[in-house]
Automatic annotation (TrEMBL):
InterPro entries: Ald_DH/histidinol_DH (IPR016161), Ald_DH_C (IPR016163), Ald_DH_CS_CYS (IPR016160), Ald_DH_CS_GLU (IPR029510), Ald_DH_N (IPR016162), Aldehyde_DH_dom (IPR015590). Residues 28-496 form the Aldehyde dehydrogenase domain. SUPFAM superfamilies: ALDH-like (SSF53720). The lineage of its organism: Eukaryota, Fungi, Dikarya, Ascomycota, Saccharomycotina. PANTHER family: 2-AMINOMUCONIC SEMIALDEHYDE DEHYDROGENASE. One of its GO terms (molecular function) is aldehyde dehydrogenase (NAD+) activity. It holds the Pfam family Aldedh. This is LAMI_0E02608g1_1. It comes from Lachancea mirantina.
């Protein structure tokens, strides 16, 4: 099997796709013969087969490379680290068009409306953490005249970074905090989306990062992800993915008490009170779930609407989504809704829609089956498309109210009082995002304080800002990425106590 493949993109451009493992700044062959097929979700055709790392020899090799690079990288002057991150950000920016196309081809994200924003987010996150590299400090205390104490924030060593399929490069970028804080890292891409991180690896080398600082391998979660989580040479796991796998990773990582950040699933509420700015509430509600084809961990998939505006809101939401969320080919610049990432994901979402219908939920828009424009297309009829779906009159008794669908499906539920809205909003095992629409400032802040979630958007939804921490509570995980808080998850705090003359 060759290490590279020439791939033709829908725009007509072609590029050289790496297929190997990126270890020590080189693409190398995996030691076994296993490979992973990457599918184009818009057509169902195989794009390329990448080499799957062997869970033993190859994971050991990647971890050893990161281990060897660690002391040198840790001790690299902060300003040099900063400049490398900025150089990498500039290279990504220069390559934004091609990276967006590769990301789109592999995930099904519309190039113009989705994938490009992910790449620009990657640029911003690299720049943001470049800014922190030479500013992160500890604290000092003078408890009495004879003592000085201070803290050192020291990198942990080798970090294993496990990436989900929904934002391959953007989720990877959040974990670059590991490298910015002086750790070295082994990244494992999701099985469904291995291509873009390998293309990005070229840029890491071109930027001048020393070999072994950033390593990227492909492989299944059950083998390669598990091997990273259980590896005694890995000092931390930064995991983003489902709650079920997060639980497995937590157990596996106990082998050497690795610290973890777990960014897991969600079932986030969006609560619309009758004093909300109506049009904005409609638009943000749609954006909060139909962006990225609903494959958003913090997607506000449970909409709770006050009874006095319930019917009017449902009608307006249905009309807005029908007119604005255009379904079609990811390379069409008018399209906002591409396919789901995989056949499995398509079937999973369809089965949730079916169960909701079987349980008596009202289909206000969408429903089972393929969107008409796809069913009649010779190119896309085998793509993994799902209709943007609005389900009305949903209650906590319905399965779809409680379980994460992770697709373009929103449930709408009626409430009458603040107390009822809060109870419904908190009626979930998850606690990732939340959103509230009201012009009443006291009610808005009361809700932000009382909702059981890691994040609360007031009068918007999922307008994630990289300066602010991202993460969840309850079954959505723990630890934070982004913002200054993100730094804390990648260093150990050492307390140093200097005796200035206290004699025994
Ligand atoms: P997933 O849990 O199936 O896979 C995530 C990653 O874990 C993949 O790289 C996979 O290969 C790996 N993995 C699987 N089994 C493993 C094991 N036993 N040991 C170690 N690694 C293993 O999730 P997914 O389907 O790729 O992504 C969707 C899920 O991710 C959703 O539940 C979504 O809510 C969640 N997510 C959360 C956030 C967040 O920030 N909280 C962000 C994005 C996605």
């Amino acid at each position: 099997m060759s290490l590279f493949k020439e791939i033709q993109l829908p725009s007509g451009k072609s590029y050289k796709q790496p297929l190997g493992l990126f270890i020590d700044n080189e693409f190398i062959k995996a030691s076994g013969n296993e490979s992973i097929d990457s599918y184009n979700p818009a057509t169902g055709e195989v794009i390329a087969s990448v080499m799957a790392a062997d869970a033993g020899a190859d994971v050991d090799k990647a971890v050893a490379a990161a281990r060897k690079a660690f002391p040198g990288w840790r001790d690299t002057p902060a300003t040099e680290k900063r400049d490398l991150l900025l150089k990498l950000a500039a290279l990504v920016e220069e390559n934004v068009e091609i990276l967006a196309e590769v990301e789109s081809l592999d995930t099904g994200k519309p190039v113009a409306q989705n994938a490009k924003y992910d790449i620009l987010e990657l640029v911003e996150v690299l720049k943001y953490y470049a800014g922190w590299v030479d500013k992160s400090t500890g604290q000092s205390f003078v408890p009495n005249a004879k003592k000085l104490t201070y803290t050192l924030h020291q990198p942990l060593g080798v970090v294993g970074c496990i990436i989900p399929f929904n934002y391959p490069l953007a989720m990877m970028s959040w974990k670059w905090t590991a490298i910015a804080t002086g750790n070295t890292a082994v990244f494992k891409s999701a099985e469904q989306t291995p291509l873009s991180i390998l293309y990005f690896a070229n840029l890491v080398k071109e930027a001048g990062f020393p070999p072994g600082v950033f390593n990227a391998i492909s492989g299944t979660g059950a083998l390669v992800g598990n091997a990273l989580a259980s590896h005694l040479g890995v000092d931390k796991i930064a995991f983003t993915g489902s709650t079920a796998v997060g639980q497995v990773v937590q157990k596996t990582a106990a082998v050497n008490l690795k610290p973890l950040t777990l960014e897991c699933g969600g079932k986030s509420p969006i609560v619309i009170f009758d004093d909300a700015e109506f049009d904005q509430a409609v638009k943000w509600t749609a954006w909060g779930i139909f962006n990225n084809m609903g494959q958003i961990c913090s997607g506000t998939s449970r909409c709770l609407v006050q009874d006095s505006i319930y019917d009017k809101f449902l009608t307006a939401l249905q009309q807005h989504v029908r007119e604005t969320y255009v379904v079609g080919s990811p390379d069409d610049s008018r399209v906002l809704v591409g396919p789901q990432v995989s056949k499995k994901q398509q079937e999973r979402v369809q089965s949730y829609i079916k169960s909701a219908v079987d349980e008596g939920c009202r289909v206000v828009l969408g429903g089972e089956g393929l969107p008409d424009v796809i069913a009649s297309s010779s190119t896309h009829k085998n793509g993994y498309y799902v209709k943007p779906t609005i389900l009305g009159d949903v209650t906590p008794q319905h399965r779809v109210f409680n379980e994460e669908v992770f697709g373009p499906v929103i449930t709408v539920t009626k409430f009458s009082t603040y107390a009822e809205a809060l109870k419904l909003a908190n009626q979930t095992e998850y606690g990732l995002g939340s959103s509230v629409f009201t012009q009443n400032i006291v009610r808005a802040h009361k809700f932000a304080a009382e909702i059981e979630a890691g994040m609360c958007w007031i009068n918007s939804s999922n307008d994630v800002d990289i300066n602010s921490p991202f993460g969840g509570v309850k079954m959505s995980g723990y630890g934070r990425e982004l913002g200054e808080y993100g730094l804390a998850n990648f260093t150990n705090v050492k307390s140093v106590q200097l005796n200035l003359g206290n004699k025994l």
